[in-house]
Structures are given as C-alpha cells and as structure tokens.
C-alpha cells in the first residue's frame, strides 16, 4: 500500500482516490471492451486489494454488469466516462488507465483477446501521426 493515485471523469463530477498498487496492465481487444470503449481496445489496470475512495460524484455513477460473466463497468452517468470498478467479490479494483490524472507507474504488459479484435485494428502503429488535428 501507500501508492496513491487520483483520477476523474471528463465532466469532473466523479473524482476518486485509489490506494493500492497496479499489478497488471492489459490492453483488451475483446468485443465487450470494443463496445464499451468505442475503440480498438480498453486499457485496464488491475489493482488487487486496493481501496477506492470517491471524493465526489459517487451518486452520479452508473454500474453495468453483463449477466453470466465477470464483465462489469462503472461510468459517470453525466458524461459517460469509464471510471474504476470495485470488484469487491474478487477484492480487485479495475481501473481504466485513461481516467487517471496521476502518472501510471507500470507499462502495458500485453494485448489480450486479439483473436476478437476489429478488422480495422491491424498495423495501427504504421499509420501517420500528428500532434494535433491534421490540417
Ligand atoms: Zn462525468
Ligand atoms: Zn475485454
């Protein structure tokens, strides 16, 4: 313990403090993650035994659990941002890396479920990059 991380949603309603260590960091390309993120993959940090304290906006949070699976998402009902899910039954907090305002102290360890990735999710590292919107 003693590792304090903070994060928030886009609209700022939901703010949290997480006390714990990130043990795993996976980029998940499964269809569930693609649906909920609207993107190629989710970037999920796993913090076993961590505790989360909502500094604000806990009443604005919505929770979705996909029946018959471990898949669950917590998100801000105002702006839709994914925020951490406290999987109490598994004493694990799953943190979407993008909602953190503090630096992440581990690097992504693996792309997972690439067997169900989108057909456009191929060679994306070779696509031209721009620091902002291209003109
Ligand atoms: Zn929000
Ligand atoms: Zn997934």
From TrEMBL:
Keywords, ordered alphabetically: Lyase, Metal-binding, Zinc
Record has GTP-binding as a keyword: no
PROSITE patterns, sorted: CENP_V_GFA
Domain of life: Bacteria
GO MF annotation: an example: metal ion binding
UniProt-listed InterPro entries: CENP-V/GFA (IPR006913), Mss4-like_sf (IPR011057)
Domain CENP-V/GFA stretches: 5-121
Family: Belongs to the Gfa family.
PANTHER family reported in the protein's UniProt record: CENP-V_GFA DOMAIN-CONTAINING PROTEIN-RELATED, GFA DOMAIN-CONTAINING PROTEIN
Protein name: Glutathione-dependent formaldehyde-activating enzyme
Annotated source species: Marinomonas spartinae
């Amino acid at each position: 313990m003693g590792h304090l991380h903070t994060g928030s949603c886009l609209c700022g309603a939901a703010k949290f403090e997480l006390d714990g260590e990130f043990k795993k960091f996976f980029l998940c390309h499964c269809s569930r993650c693609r649906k909920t993120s609207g993107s190629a993959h989710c970037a999920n940090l796993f913090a076993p035994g961590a505790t989360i304290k909502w500094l604000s906006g806990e009443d604005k949070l919505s929770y979705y659990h996909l029946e018959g699976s471990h898949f669950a998402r917590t998100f801000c009902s105002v702006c839709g941002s994914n925020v951490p899910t406290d999987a109490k039954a598994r004493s694990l907090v799953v943190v979407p890396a993008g909602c953190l305002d503090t630096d992440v102290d581990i690097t992504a360890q693996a792309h997972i479920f690439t067997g169900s990735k989108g057909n456009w999710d191929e060679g994306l590292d070779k696509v031209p990059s721009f620091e902002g919107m291209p003109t």
